[in-house]
Amino acid sequence: MSTATVDSGADRKLFKDTNKLEMTGRLARNPEIRYRANSQAVTTFDLCSTEEYPVQGEVRKRECWVTVVMYGPDGEKFAGEGQKGDWIGIIGKLQQRRWETEDGQKRAKHEIVAFSAEVKRKARTTTQS
């Protein structure tokens, strides 16, 4: 049996929904920039965050792959700094994008809209001698 509570105006002031996240992980591909008709930059990249956890004395890994979108000059700046393999950190929010295909199929995708992104450690590069 479930119980329902009445939402008072005071409760709404105390409890507000939040949509903020922080992630670190590897830049899975080089950032790509495209420009909207109004010249606004839209930068996209993929982030792979790996979680390690124990199972019967063995360490296992689980990967979380997400698409990240940044708008404007901050995204352009990050695109010039980040390269595939870099360890990065982002702060942003989760957003669901919905659209309809040319044949009428409805589609939806979750992605992160980043407010900030920074390269925390560059990927190791190997030099050949």
Automatic annotation (TrEMBL):
Domain of life: Bacteria
A Pfam match: SSB
Origin organism lineage: Bacteria, Pseudomonadati, Nitrospirota, Nitrospiria, Nitrospirales
Record's protein name: Single-stranded DNA-binding protein
Record key words, sorted: DNA-binding
Biological source species: Nitrospira moscoviensis
Gene Ontology BP term (one): DNA replication
Gene3D superfamilies xrefs: Nucleic acid-binding proteins
A GO term, aspect molecular function: single-stranded DNA binding
